[in-house]
Amino acid sequence: MEKQKERKDINVNDTWDLTLIFKTDEDFYKELDKVTKEINDITKYQGHILDNSNNLLSFLKQSDEDERKLYKLYYYAHLKLDQDTANTIYQEMEGKISNLLQEYSILTSFVMPELMNGDYEQVLKFIKENKELEIYRFNLENIYRYQSHSLNHDEEKLLSTLSKSLDTAEKTFESLTDADINFPDIVVDGKTYPLNESNYSVYMDSPNREIRKNAFNNLLGTYGNYKNTLASTFSGNVELLTSMAKIKKFNSSLEASLYPDNIDKSVYNNLIDTINKHLDVLYKYYDLKKESLNLSELHLYDIYRTMVSDYDKSYSFDEAKEIVMDALSILGEDYINNLSKAFSERWIDKYNNKGKRGGAYSSGFYDTKPYLLLNFEGKYNDVTTLAHELGHSMHTYYSCSNQPYNLSSYNIFVAEVASTVNELILVRYLLKKSTDKSEKLFLLNKLMELYKATIYRQVMFAEFERDMHASLESGEILTNEYLCSKYYELVKRYFGDGVVIDENIKNEWMRIPHFYYNFYVYKYAIGLSCATKIVNDIESGKVNDYLNFLKTGGSMYPSEELLVANVDIKDPKLYLEAINAFNNYIDEYKKIMKGE
Q1: Using CA atoms, how far apart are residues 473 and 212, in angstroms rounded to an integer?
Q2: By 3-state DSSP, what share of the chain in percent is helix, strand and coil, each rounded to 5?
Q3: 95, 138, 374, 539 - which has most CB atoms within 10 Å?
Q4: Burial state string for 174-198 with b = 16 or more CB within 10 A and e = fewer than 16
């Protein structure tokens, strides 16, 4: 294995150019000292924000200015640290700006209580009399939406003092699953294979079926040994969310969790109902997998085994760049001209080095470039990752270029749409260009796995989460027996009669961290459904609506922003379009596999 390079040995042209934020570290510290002295000025508004329209406008402008200065410092330090996490200079730099952000949070702790105690009708009058406040209308509307779900000052202060303890269930889950649970080794044909959560997915794709079976049983069987503790942790989190929803005057924990995105629970329920009506397509996929793997019985420990194992193409970064740029040219000249800046202006940190943060991300805001961290190794997944992260970066670029600062930050609900659009465009492009049977099957297999995992599996999780919260709210006690039996019933329905439902699957709910993320998983399914509709539209020549969506930033609620792209998350047809895409990929795979 090639030795990891030190950061200093990486070609400068393969690194991101952070001098576009601050020329030198010295400039960073000069600005840090300056901002440290300035931020206290915000406290002059305490008790006076809503005195008159001029005060409100002045406060909002000052708050924006402070944030922009603070976050420019933050992004420089955070990106510097991630390029070499062992560098103590950047550890200290990141620590200093993190401390300053915390100090600013304390300084501005008066803001929300003061606004919540204010009269929204008076705020609307301020906007009417002072036209400069108009750009803040949406921000203020979004704040005052919470007025009917806010407590008085003393009650909010009491909840604030409990904030750390409210995370206990999630932290207990993380400690138990990350550190305390040890899984027995896999022993097959006299060979021993260490098992943990990190390598579990590798074993589940092993060509050796005994390894897959043992990994499945060893991991999920071990979770069963902790069923009482994990049931208590899960139940405790559900009870917390239910109680907090009641305290905040919501009808349910589901309603409370969807409220920040301004999503009605009918969207959540319609998604689940639509997917349940079309489980036959998922059954069809598993029948294909069983046939492709030449198995007499398809067990749950077989479902992650790839159907294409003889394709392993490598790419240089320049080849990946050319492929991605060519694929995304369908989005038009303006998009490609802006996308090319990512390469010419060095937004991208391409390769791994010693101490560099793993994985990949896009990170930036209004006063920086939308930088990309990669650890490019030349595999197919690295090419799709480049396209994916560029999708995020271009979303940020268009949002920041077309919105004022206060409306430039898009909601996490829509964050994965742009990245998934790029991924789908890329894979479809590669499919159309390919003349190689193995490559076509490989790409179709990747697409089918994407839809299976993101649409069906995530909706199954979303259904379990919804139903368990509803059960507790109706008085049910969430014992381990109840949770296991309900999860087992759900798995049987989602996998159908064509898959052998192994007993240990009843424990799988115990290992899913997303059940502590407050009804988050449904967003994955909606995101891919939206991306499917958008890419279908783009391929039929409707590009401008999508580009206009990228420009909306945070100027609307997520569902309204998606309507700009002609996507209606309330319409079940949206999810049917994704299901149909999945079904078509299954048919295309079968046709190529059989040489038709």
Answers
A1: 38
A2: 70, 5, 30
A3: 374
A4: eebbeeebebeebebeeeebebeee
Q: Pick from 210, 211, 208, 186: which is nearest to 196 by CA?
A: 186
Antiparallel, parallel or unpaired: β 348-349 and 371-373: parallel
H or E stretch covering 529: helix 522-539
pLDDT (0 to 100) of residue 2: 65
The span from the CA of 469 to the CA of 235, in Å, is: 9
Residue among 318, 379, 380, 315 at smallest CA distance from 348: 318
pLDDT tens string 198-254: 999 999 999 999 999 999 999 999 999 999 999 999 999 999 999 999 999 999 999
Token match 């009269």: residue? 119
> Catalytic: 389?
yes
What is the pLDDT, as a whole number, of residue 310? 74
Domain finish residue from 161, 195, 218: 161
- The active-site residue out of 67, 170, 389, 416 is 389
The domain boundary residue, chosen from 516, 537, 555: 516
Q: What's the whole-number average pLDDT of the chain?
A: 96
C-alpha pair distances (Å), 378 with each of 108, 191, 351, 384:
47, 31, 10, 11
Asked if residue 244 and residue 154 are part of one domain, the reply reads no
Cα four-point dihedral sign 238, 244, 246, 249: negative
Tens of pLDDT along 33-67? Answer: 999 999 999 999 999 999 999 999 999 999 999 99
What pLDDT, on a 0 to 100 scale, did the predictor assign at position 179? 85
- Report the C-alpha dihedral over residues 159, 161, 162, 164, rounded to 10 degrees: 130
Whole-number pLDDT of residue 533: 98
Distance in angstroms (rounded) separating the CA atoms of residues 465 and 239: 13
DSSP-derived secondary structure for 284-305: HHHHHHHHHTT-SS-BGGGTTS
Taking a C-beta distance cutoff of 8 angstroms, is the pair 365, 409 a contact? yes
Residue 25 Cα to chain centre, angstroms: 32
Residue 284 belongs to a domain with what CATH number? 1.10.1370.20
What are the tens digits of pLDDT across the range 17-40? Answer: 999 999 999 999 999 999 999 999
